[in-house]
Design brief:
CATH superfamily of the largest domain: Periplasmic binding protein-like II
Number of domains: 3
Largest sheet: 5 strands, mixed
Helix content: 40-55%
CATH architecture of the largest domain: 3-Layer(aba) Sandwich
Number of strands: 12
CATH class of the largest domain: Alpha Beta
Number of helices: 13
Distance between the termini: 86 Å
CATH topology of the largest domain: D-Maltodextrin-Binding Protein, domain 2
Radius of gyration: 39 Å
Shape: rod-shaped
Strand order of the largest sheet: 4-1-5-12-6
Strand content: 15-25%
Order of helices and strands: HEEEHEHEHEEHHHHEHEHEHEEHH
């Protein structure tokens, strides 16, 4: 009987011990679940959405993400990627849990990664150099291409011929005309140019009514020459102005366009058949625009407008209306367990006006 009591007592103690141990294990698991996990957040530097100053990140997308992470009590670390493509690949492979930047939501990307609710409406615009006066070289090349330089050369030869002819004529028929060849040629050259530029004559009439008829014809020729030179230069300058003007997408035909490498803009411009050069970042694109490597830049409207606003020392213009409208969202890896929570926080940020406040802070406008 004593052995039976001992056995029962042993079983009871073992049961109670196992129960206490299991409860302790469950408590530890619950505590572990309550401890915020650190997740990897991938970013792509793209002002004003993501900026990196003194190894600290800021920007509209960063502010929104940190607002969400604070509400979710989530720890995170940042990892920088050189382009959108690498960031999407890293998110797809779960190297990062969240992609934070001005990431356009597209069908192709949505097949690789998940997206949150859109938090920014955007689209594409064109950036060009500020319109400047037509350069002398461009004007000369335009006159040459139009065939006017040949006509000008004929006029120069005609001026020289008339100068010599008038000098010979006056030396023979005008007794008061100087006998010094240098002074005579200079005076005749002045008379010819006066006729060509103003249609006037200041020399004496040596042949009565016949001289007046010839003078009238002379004046008419001068007026025609002035009209021709003026109209030819005006037409070439107008043509140059129109050919250099870029205000809309159709104006990019025959131009070299700068785009961001591995971006949706590059795919769009390539699909439209434009001649383009891909660059790694907006600074490189602007350098290409300033040195003449490209005639225009096509990019996300808020990026271009923010760059123009913060670089007053550069002669840049964002022109035309918005085209190819799109939306930005945060990219999420397929294994991200916070998909629903992050999306709900973005909806709350819309409803509370937090996103509108961010837009006002970074773009100087209330939307």
């Amino acid at each position: 009987m004593s052995h039976l009591k001992r056995f029962v007592t042993f079983i009871c103690v073992a049961f109670v011990t196992s129960l206490i141990f299991s409860q302790q294990v469950q408590l530890n698991v619950d505590l572990d679940e309550n401890v915020p996990k650190t997740i990897e957040v991938g970013v792509y530097i793209s002002p004003p959405f993501v900026l990196n100053t003194d190894e600290e990140f800021s920007g509209m997308a960063i502010d929104l993400w940190e607002h969400i992470a604070k509400n979710l009590k989530t720890n995170y670390t940042y990892k920088v990627y050189d382009n959108f493509h690498d960031l999407v690949v890293a998110t797809n492979s779960d190297s990062v849990s969240v992609a934070v930047t001005n990431l356009t939501i597209t069908k192709e990307r949505a097949q690789k990664i998940d997206f949150t609710q859109p938090w920014f409406d955007a689209g594409l615009k064109i950036m060009v150099k500020e319109k400047a006066a037509t350069s002398s070289n461009a004007l000369i090349n335009g006159l040459r291409d139009a065939g006017h330089l040949t006509s000008y050369f004929v006029l120069v030869v005609l001026v020289l011929f008339l100068t010599i002819l008038m000098t010979l004529f006056d030396r023979k028929f005008d007794k008061e005309f100087t006998k010094n060849w240098r002074d005579g040629l200079a005076d005749s050259f002045y008379q010819v140019m006066l006729m060509f530029t103003s249609g006037k004559l200041s020399r004496k009439n040596l042949f009565g009514w016949v001289g007046r008829v010839f003078a009238a014809i002379w004046l008419a020729v001068g007026i025609l020459v002035v009209a021709y030179v003026t109209s030819s230069i005006t037409s070439v300058m107008t043509t140059l102005s129109l050919s250099n003007e870029i205000n809309q997408l159709s104006d990019l035909n025959g131009k070299k366009v700068g785009v961001l490498k591995d971006s949706e803009t590059e795919d769009f411009i390539h699909g439209r058949g434009f001649n383009y050069i891909p660059f790694l970042n907006i600074d490189a694109m602007v350098d290409g625009l300033e040195d003449g490597s490209v005639d225009a830049i096509v990019g996300d409207a808020p990026i271009l407008e923010y760059y123009q606003f913060t670089h007053h020392n550069k002669s840049l213009e964002v022109v035309g209306s918005l085209f190819k409208p799109d939306k930005y969202g945060f990219g999420l890896s397929p294994k991200n367990t916070l998909k629903k929570e992050i999306t709900l926080e973005i909806l709350k940020a819309h409803e509370s006006g937090y996103i509108r406040k961010l837009k006002s802070n970074y773009f100087g406008q209330s939307q």
